[in-house]
Design goal:
CATH architecture: Roll
Helix content: 10-25%
CATH class: Alpha Beta
Largest sheet: 4 strands, antiparallel
Distance between the termini: 37 Å
Radius of gyration: 13 Å
Number of strands: 4
Bound molecules: zinc ion
Length: about 120
């Protein structure tokens, strides 16, 4: 067990938040959960989680991560993305050393699992 706070900024501990998702021990219930886990995967350099949770229709053959130092995540807006929805949108700002990334991401749910589709 890691008593660390989750890097995604949820206020939960890593083991009760993105940790089990990164370890493929559980699945994201909402698009926002998946988005948060993908941010945390960037923090920990977990390219496998990014690839696994990327829509097969839009993902690259391989996910390459650089050495960006991520500093925090703020989710600005969520549209749909509940367990009853087939799609969802998460608008967020991720801060890193030297700048920030603002993105509006689209997610899709297939076979009971959420996947990142693309930036919109
Ligand atoms: Zn988290």
């Amino acid at each position: 067990m890691h008593p660390d706070p989750c890097p995604c900024g949820s206020g939960h501990l890593l083991d009760a938040c993105c940790g089990p998702l990164l370890a493929a021990e559980s699945q994201a219930v909402t698009a926002e959960e998946l988005m948060r886990s993908r941010y945390t995967a960037h923090v920990y350099g977990n390219a496998e989680h990014l690839w696994r949770t990327w829509d097969g229709r839009t993902r690259p053959a391989e996910v390459h991560l650089d050495d960006t130092r991520w500093l925090g995540l703020e989710v600005r807006e969520v549209v749909d993305g509940s367990p009853q929805d087939a799609t969802g949108i998460v608008d967020f700002v991720a801060r890193y050393e030297g700048g920030q990334l603002a993105e509006r991401s689209e997610f899709t749910r297939r076979g009971g699992r959420w996947f990142y589709t693309k930036e919109i």
